[in-house]
Design goal:
Blueprint: H1 2-15, E1 21-27, H2 34-47, E2 52-56, H3 64-67, H4 76-80, H5 86-89, E3 90-92, E4 98-100, H6 114-130, E5 133-137, H7 144-150, E6 155-160, H8 164-180, E7 185-193, H9 196-214, E8 219-225, H10 228-236, H11 240-243, H12 248-262, E9 268-269, H13 273-289
Parallel strand pairs: 1-5, 1-6, 2-4, 2-5, 6-7, 7-8, 8-9
Antiparallel strand pairs: 3-4
């Protein structure tokens, strides 16, 4: 399996700078909003005129097709098992976004074989010729095959929340990847932050820990605010960037994506409406006491 991973890595390195840019979105634990971020991040890229495909790597438990409100007859699993062609598993999403579903209703654990890795290598070669960005929405946690895959991808976005367990798991994920590939670029994002301060503190803890224990410098994307629009959008099965474009999280993400494309690594932080309201209320009360 490691030989297959190295073959995949070589294919990606050969094409860097000439073809599509590969990005993996990872988290140490589930429930941090990774698939929602991946989908809306990709939509913002597509709105900038980029050709984007999202590959849902959470095979058998995929969410991307649900978030965009679509059904997918075939999934990545069907392609990897040689049952359908790559073209048959690529679906059209909103705003010219393309996606490959991970499928749902998992009936058995997927054991990766050399044939499946060969299929993935072939898919990489084809997709890099057709898309500007290939976005991998990885399953939560780390497995041997997922770490092998991650070493072949250009850049990695690591998502955490302010919860201590999420921070610890995000660090562990980066450590696992770093030990396999010390040149890998990490971008950190704090999701569901209740305030800018909470986002900054969370990211600072991760940044400092990476430097202290691994002597690894990371890049900070910023933080996305806790926003009720996300839950509404999930229920409606329309990505929040489309259904609630003026919401705090959508406007913050829009700026973040533009800076990512331009490679301007200025931190972007959003404020939730709740936080803004409380800040104004505190300000009013403090003035009343003066």
């Amino acid at each position: 399996m490691r030989d297959q991973a190295e073959k995949l890595r070589m294919k990606m390195l050969e094409s860097q700078g000439a073809l599509g840019r590969s990005i993996a979105v990872v988290s140490g634990k589930g429930g941090v909003g990774k698939s929602n971020f991946s989908t809306n991040f990709a939509i913002n890229l597509a709105e900038l005129g980029k050709k984007v495909v999202v590959i849902d790597m959470d095979i058998g438990m995929g969410n991307v097709h649900i978030i965009v409100g679509k059904t997918a007859r075939y999934s990545l699993k069907d392609y990897l098992f040689g049952e359908v062609s790559l073209e048959e598993v690529i679906y059209e999403g909103p705003h010219n976004l393309q996606y490959i579903s991970g499928g749902s209703g998992m009936s058995s654990i997927i054991e990766w074989s050399e044939e499946m890795f060969d299929g993935l290598i072939s898919a990489f070669e084809q997709l890099q010729k057709s898309f500007d960005y290939i976005l991998f929405d990885m399953g939560a946690g780390a497995t041997s095959w997922s770490l092998d895959l991650l070493t072949s991808i250009d850049e990695i976005i690591v998502i955490s929340t302010a919860e201590p367990t999420a921070i610890t798991d995000a660090y562990s994920m980066m450590k696992f990847i770093h030990l396999r590939d010390q040149s890998k670029t990490f971008y950190l994002l704090c999701n569901r932050a209740f305030s800018k301060e909470e986002g900054v503190e969370t990211l600072s803890r991760l940044e400092n820990t990476m430097m202290k224990f691994l002597n690894k410098q990371v890049s900070i994307l910023g933080s996305l605010p806790e926003d009720p629009s996300v839950r509404k959008a999930v229920r409606e099965q329309v990505p929040f960037s489309i259904s609630y474009p003026n919401s705090p999280i959508a406007t913050t993400l829009k700026v973040m994506v533009q800076q990512f494309v331009d490679r301007q690594m200025t931190e972007v932080h959003g404020e939730s409406k709740t936080t803004t309201f409380l800040s104004k209320l505190r300000s009013i009360f403090s003035k009343g006491r003066d």
